[in-house]
Design brief:
113 residues; 0% strand; transmembrane helix; membrane
C-alpha cells in the first residue's frame, strides 16, 4: 500500500505521462487500501487460528482424558466437549462481529453501557 502511494506520487510528478494513467494508479491504490481496511484479513486469520488452536487443544485433552475430561463416562466427556466447542464457536462469532463493526460503533458502545 505504501509502495503504491509512492508510485502514484512519482507518476503525478512525471509530466510526460497522460493524466488518465495517474488517475488509474491512484484509484487502484485507494481501492486496495479500502479492501484491506474493510476486510481486515490479518485480524480475521489471527482470530481463526487462535480458535483452531483452542479447538485442537480441547480435542487433545478429550482424547487423552486430561483436565476436565478426566472421567471414564464417555457420554459425559462428549457432552462436556460439545459444550466447550460450542462456547468457542460463539466466542469466535462475537470476535468476528467486532471486526465487522466500524471504529465509530466500537467507540460508541462503552458510552451506552
Amino acid at each position: 500500500m505504501i509502495l503504491g502511494s509512492a508510485i502514484a506520487t512519482a507518476i503525478v510528478n512525471i509530466s510526460e505521462l497522460p493524466r488518465w494513467e495517474t488517475s488509474i494508479v491512484t484509484v487502484i491504490v485507494a481501492a486496495t487500501s479500502g479492501i484491506l481496511v474493510a476486510y481486515k484479513f490479518k485480524d480475521r486469520s489471527t482470530t481463526l487460528q487462535q480458535t483452531g488452536d483452542l479447538i485442537k487443544a480441547k480435542y487433545e485433552s478429550f482424547r487423552l482424558h486430561l483436565d476436565e475430561y478426566d472421567t471414564s463416562d464417555i457420554e459425559a466427556r462428549y457432552k462436556l466437549l460439545t459444550r466447550r466447542l460450542k462456547r468457542l464457536k460463539e466466542e469466535q462469532r462475537s470476535r468476528e462481529l467486532l471486526l465487522e463493526q466500524s471504529p465509530e460503533t466500537k467507540q460508541a458502545q462503552p458510552a451506552q453501557a
